[in-house]
């Protein structure tokens, strides 16, 4: 599908339709209207303003199949554009299409695209609605004002095409009530994804974070996104961008709730915040990082914590209101990670020798980030491919675990060398 435009009189008049529905019939109608005084002139008068400079940039070709209108041939040029993504005037992203297509599909036009031939059509929707439009924004009731009320707000996401296999959710705004203080369970507000692969419910503040939902191959049940709000008054605000990912996209790793690309970046657990964040209970998911070309390893370092007098960027177990050492392994001893852990396959400290019995480790927890038992944080290297981490928390924090924030890690991929293969 695309946008097909007939340009008459060297760009003075433009007439655009969805590519698939444009046919010679339309062309003759336009040609006729022009011949009979041009009823389309007012409708497309905006084209008059920008026509001249825009058409210079466009590849022209003559519309040869219209034999009947041969006397107009030299005046007509047909240009086509794909229904691509566009940036709307408001800063939101949309899909480029004609004004008529945009309103018939329930979007709202927000600025121009395709060199002024199309309109950037934004799809924004709220509670109890459904969408099959790529790039729909799911917002709270009353957005951009916050919503302070209780209930359930659901968006049903239907595949725009059977060839869509994943849905990416970008949390442009995400502020709902956080978990309770004792066991960090989301028992007041929750964001729930159902209909795809199992995804843990989350709550709190998650702006800037994302999720991938596996929607299955072919025509499948819709994916439902639900915000449940209950309990104490709270000013909730959300704006979730819902992108439909075609099956043939290079990203194919099923089972990664989060997926990062790039040589370096930052990973955070949901509701991470050094001051007010609380690690969420009942989490169980994988994080994947694309191996960039010519890179063989990945190094993780706890984020710099500038607000606390001791870093709380990695606090998973123990009473992290006090300094807590790192803990490793899957045993049940006091310094093992039986309940909450971040799993980094065969993690080894960088520049610090490990004890002989643990050349590399998998589960890491505690209140200090390192691949050995220590009060001293360390960068950690893993060369297991593909690059993945898994995060698991159980449903209990108190009394042993208190004040844990979760994790914030910076990652940096390591080039292939004699030591990193
Ligand atoms: C327009 O439609 C034709 C066939 O109808 C197709 O070959 C062409 O790729 C389409 N162009 C765009 C930009 O979608
Ligand atoms: C949805 O939009 C994104 C980005 O705008 C694009 O990469 C993706 O291919 C689109 N999906 C479909 C099904 O067209
Ligand atoms: C629009 O897309 C650009 C580029 O992909 C991205 O950087 C930006 O955050 C998007 N804006 C919104 C509001 O989604
Ligand atoms: C660190 O800050 C906490 C309160 O945020 C305070 O109780 C503690 O004494 C401080 N520790 C040091 C060593 O300054």
Structure in a nutshell:
The chain has 421 residues and is mainly beta. The chain is 8% helix and 37% strand.
Helices and strands in order, then pairings?
Layout: E1 2-8, E2 13-18, H1 24-35, H2 40-43, H3 45-56, E3 76-82, E4 85-87, E5 93-97, H4 99-104, E6 108-113, E7 118-122, E8 124-125, E9 129-131, E10 136-139, E11 151-157, E12 164-175, E13 190-194, E14 210-214, E15 223-229, E16 237-246, E17 256-260, E18 264-268, E19 284-289, E20 295-302, E21 314-315, E22 326-328, E23 341-349, E24 361-366, E25 380-382, E26 387-392, E27 406-415
Parallel strand pairs: 8-10, 9-11, 17-19
Antiparallel strand pairs: 1-2, 1-3, 4-5, 5-7, 6-7, 10-16, 11-15, 12-14, 12-16, 13-15, 18-27, 19-26, 20-25, 20-27, 21-27, 22-24, 23-24, 23-25, 23-26
The structure holds 2-acetamido-2-deoxy-beta-D-glucopyranose (NAG) (4 copies).
């Amino acid at each position: 599908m695309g946008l097909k435009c007939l340009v008459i009189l060297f760009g003075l008049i433009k007439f655009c339709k969805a590519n698939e529905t444009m046919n010679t019939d339309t062309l003759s109608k336009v040609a006729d209207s022009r011949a009979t005084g041009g009823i389309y002139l007012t409708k497309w008068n905006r084209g008059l303003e920008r026509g001249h400079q825009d058409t210079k940039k466009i590849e022209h070709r003559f519309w040869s199949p219209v034999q009947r209108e041969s006397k107009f041939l030299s005046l007509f040029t047909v240009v086509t554009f794909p229904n691509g993504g566009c940036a709307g005037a408001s800063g939101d992203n949309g899909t480029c299409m004609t004004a008529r297509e945009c309103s018939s599909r329930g979007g709202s036009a927000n600025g121009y695209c395709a060199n002024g031939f199309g309109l950037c059509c934004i799809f924004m929707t709220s509670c109890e609605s459904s969408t099959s439009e790529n790039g729909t924004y799911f917002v709270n009731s009353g957005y951009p004002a916050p919503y302070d009320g209780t209930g359930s707000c659901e968006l049903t996401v239907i595949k725009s095409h059977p060839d869509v296999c994943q849905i990416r959710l970008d949390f442009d705004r995400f502020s709902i009530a956080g978990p309770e203080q004792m066991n960090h369970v989301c028992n007041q507000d929750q964001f729930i994804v159902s209909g795809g692969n199992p995804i843990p419910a989350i709550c709190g503040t998650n702006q800037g974070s994302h999720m991938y939902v596996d929607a299955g191959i072919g025509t499948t049940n819709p994916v439902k996104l639900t915000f449940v709000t209950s309990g104490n008054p709270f000013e909730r605000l959300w704006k979730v961008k819902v992108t439909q990912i075609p099956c043939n996209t290079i990203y194919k790793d099923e089972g990664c709730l989060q997926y990062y690309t790039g040589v370096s970046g930052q990973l955070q657990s949901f509701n991470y915040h050094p001051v007010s964040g609380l690690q969420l209970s009942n989490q169980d998911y994988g994080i994947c990082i694309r191996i960039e070309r010519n890179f063989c390893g990945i190094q993780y370092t706890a984020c710099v914590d500038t607000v606390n007098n001791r870093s709380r960027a990695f606090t998973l177990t123990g009473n992290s209101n006090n300094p807590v050492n790192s803990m490793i392994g899957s045993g049940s001893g006091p310094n093992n990670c039986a309940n909450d852990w971040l799993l980094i396959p065969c993690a080894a400290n960088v520049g610090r020798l490990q004890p002989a019995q643990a050349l590399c480790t998998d589960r890491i927890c505690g209140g200090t980030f390192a691949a050995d038992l220590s009060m001293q944080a360390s960068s950690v290297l893993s060369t297991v491919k593909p690059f993945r981490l898994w995060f698991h928390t159980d449903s209990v924090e108190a009394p042993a675990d208190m004040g844990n924030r979760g994790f914030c890690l910076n990652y940096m991929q390591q080039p292939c060398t004699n030591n990193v293969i």
